[in-house]
Amino acid sequence: METKEFEVLLGACAEVAELFPEGVIYIGGIAVYLHAKNVATTSELAEFTHDADFYISFADMGDLRDIEEVTPNRRLSKHQMIKKGFEFDIYTERQSSLIVPYDMVLSSSDVYGGMRVASLEHLLVLKLMAFMDRKGSSKGDKDAKDLLRIAAVASQGGNGFRPELALPYLQDEHLALLKQVAGGPHALSLAQGNAMLAKRIRADFTSVVTSLTTPPEAEAGKPAVKRSRKP
User: Left (φ > 0), alpha (ψ -120 to 50) or beta: where does 197 sit?
Assistant: First the structure.
């Protein structure tokens, strides 16, 4: 995608955000882009996306229907709309199948240039679920790279990663999948063959995976107690 074309997409996203500043939270690739672009040491990893996804409150969804032509996709528990030629996937509070509830995503969200985005921790969970469904495909490769980007921003941005926000939604099979990404070829691909950068990306990702798989008691040098995880 050309820069000018992506700027049109960003403009469309900004218009929606301006209408619903508290009720719309961007997720997916557009959210990963905004996080990465706003950290100096990860801006080079930010990648344009061809569409946009957002989570919306139940009340604001009613207002959105009055403004835009919104089409239901019941099979995937979402709605879709076309704005400025771009497709938007819409997930509604209490109606979507996303694993992280809307109110939890809202409470930990960040804002860049007036656009509210899901936290890095909740993005990691949502991207991991997408990767689980799409691994082995080109979209799955993009999901894996986005997982690496999320970890890079968490490590390089200075705010760290809060595992307690992600752990309630992860099971052992999800954590095993994260370890698979850590050992896979996606870091070198994301770094475009730059071995030193790939090493840094892997280290950042390993740090996040470790925070999710090491109980706090073990980190503090205390006997480890196995944590229970909700589906």
Answer: alpha
Q: Are 171 and 129 in contact (CB under 8 A)?
A: no
Predicted model pTM: 0.91
Q: Which residues, listed in sequence order, are joined to residue 53 by a DSSP beta bridge?
A: 27, 89
List, for residues 140-192, the tens digit of each pLDDT value.
Answer: 999 999 999 999 999 998 788 999 999 999 999 999 999 999 999 999 999 99
- Residue 19, class by beta-carbon neighbours within 10 Å (0-12 exposed, 13-18 middle, 19+ buried)? middle
Question: Can you read off the two tokens belonging to residue 157?
Answer: 């941005």
> Which structure tokens are listed for 227?
């944590």
Domain spanning 1-118: which CATH class is it, in words?
alpha beta
What confidence tens digit (pLDDT) does each residue in 101-139 have? 999 999 999 999 999 999 999 999 999 999 999 998 999
Pairing of strands 52-56, 86-92: parallel
Residue type, 169: Y
| β-strands 24-27, 52-56 pairing | antiparallel
Q: Where are the domains of the chain?
A: 1-118, 120-231
